[in-house]
């Protein structure tokens, strides 16, 4: 088990993004996660599960009183209105969510979401009392062109509000080419990016950079979570495929318990 290099000042967060996976029959996986978390299975880490919208109310009822929080995967910027098919931040809150993922690359590419739209949604999340997990990340072509840092820097400053309390905002660095591919950046590249993001947050939101958690996402699995956890400035994970089963999700979150035990 590598030494944990992340500063102990920020409580780690492990968020599971179920994407468009999960019927009601998957709810027992959430119940098992709640029980394991209550038993200390994630150590100091905070756990969030973001199921599809259809499961949020049921998932929130299961998690009530447990250490596991529920999140949405997107929201509209308006509190209500004639927006067929959309869900507002207030509706997520009303359904029992306390987090919402915003600006995921699958929404940026599949739904043409730009930075300004993500920023408006983040403002809506704050208005509703949700914590926004704002995603940023470069494509493979951008990394190969040496443009990863400026690309992510521009996305970040364009996507986050001009003012925010640290408890209302989490950043997830997710290189597009690492999502669902089994590929991950080197620890050096992740550390460089997370350090860069923290500095950019401090420029944009003075004093907040050291308080806002920066998650890594992209092919986080039980067998690489300990190594990724140990990377400087990684304050947790945004997990896709590895969050779909209780077994894998707790194995990933469990690296924080093992690190605590190791001292
Ligand atoms: O939101 C989660 C990310 O897209 C990562 O997905 P993945 O863990 O399946 O690579």
UniProtKB/TrEMBL annotation:
It comes from the Bacteria. InterPro entries: Aldolase_TIM, TIM_sf, TrioseP_Isoase_bac/euk, Triosephosphate_isomerase, Triosephosphate_isomerase_AS. The active site is at 104 (electrophile), 174 (proton acceptor). Transmembrane segments: none annotated. Keywords: Cytoplasm, Gluconeogenesis, Glycolysis, Isomerase. The keyword Ion transport does not apply. Coiled coil: none annotated. Its main location: cytoplasm. Its EC number is 5.3.1.1. GO terms for molecular function: triose-phosphate isomerase activity. Gene3D superfamilies: Aldolase class I. SUPFAM superfamilies: Triosephosphate isomerase (TIM). Pathway: Carbohydrate biosynthesis; gluconeogenesis; Carbohydrate metabolism; erythritol degradation; Carbohydrate degradation; glycolysis; D-glyceraldehyde 3-phosphate from glycerone phosphate: step 1/1. Substrate binds at residues 17-19, 180, 219, 240-241. It holds the Pfam family TIM. It is an enzyme of class 5 (isomerase). It catalyses: D-glyceraldehyde 3-phosphate = dihydroxyacetone phosphate; L-erythrulose 1-phosphate = D-erythrulose 4-phosphate. It is found in: Cytoplasm. Belongs to the triosephosphate isomerase family. Involved in the gluconeogenesis. Catalyzes stereospecifically the conversion of dihydroxyacetone phosphate (DHAP) to D-glyceraldehyde-3-phosphate (G3P). Homodimer. This is Triosephosphate isomerase. It comes from Methylocapsa polymorpha. The gene is tpiA.
């Amino acid at each position: 088990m590598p030494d944990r290099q992340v500063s102990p000042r920020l409580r780690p967060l492990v968020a599971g993004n179920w994407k468009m996976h999960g019927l009601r029959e998957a709810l027992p996986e959430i119940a098992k996660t709640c029980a394991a978390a209550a038993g200390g299975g994630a150590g100091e880490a905070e756990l969030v599960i973001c199921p599809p919208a259809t499961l949020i109310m049921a998932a929130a009822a299961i998690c009530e009183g447990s250490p596991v929080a529920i999140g949405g995967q997107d929201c509209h910027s308006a509190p209500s209105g004639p927006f067929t098919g959309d869900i507002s931040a207030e509706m997520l809150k009303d359904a029992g969510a306390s987090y919402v993922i915003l600006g995921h690359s699958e929404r940026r590419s599949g739904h043409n979401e730009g930075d300004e739209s993500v920023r408006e949604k983040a403002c809506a999340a704050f208005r509703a009392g949700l914590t926004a997990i704002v995603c940023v990340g470069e494509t493979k072509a951008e990394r190969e062109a040496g443009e990863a840092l400026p690309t992510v820097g521009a996305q970040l400053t364009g996507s986050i509000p001009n003012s925010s309390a640290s408890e209302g905002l989490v950043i997830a660095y997710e290189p597009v080419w690492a999502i669902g591919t089994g590929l991950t950046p080197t620890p050096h590249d992740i550390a460089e990016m997370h350090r860069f993001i923290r500095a950019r947050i401090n420029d944009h939101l003075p004093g907040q950079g050291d308080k806002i958690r920066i998650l890594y996402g992209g092919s986080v699995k039980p067998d690489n979570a300990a190594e990724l956890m140990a990377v400087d400035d990684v304050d947790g994970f945004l997990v896709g495929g590895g969050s779909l089963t209780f077994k894998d999700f707790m194995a990933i979150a469990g690296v924080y318990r093992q690190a605590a035990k190791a001292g």
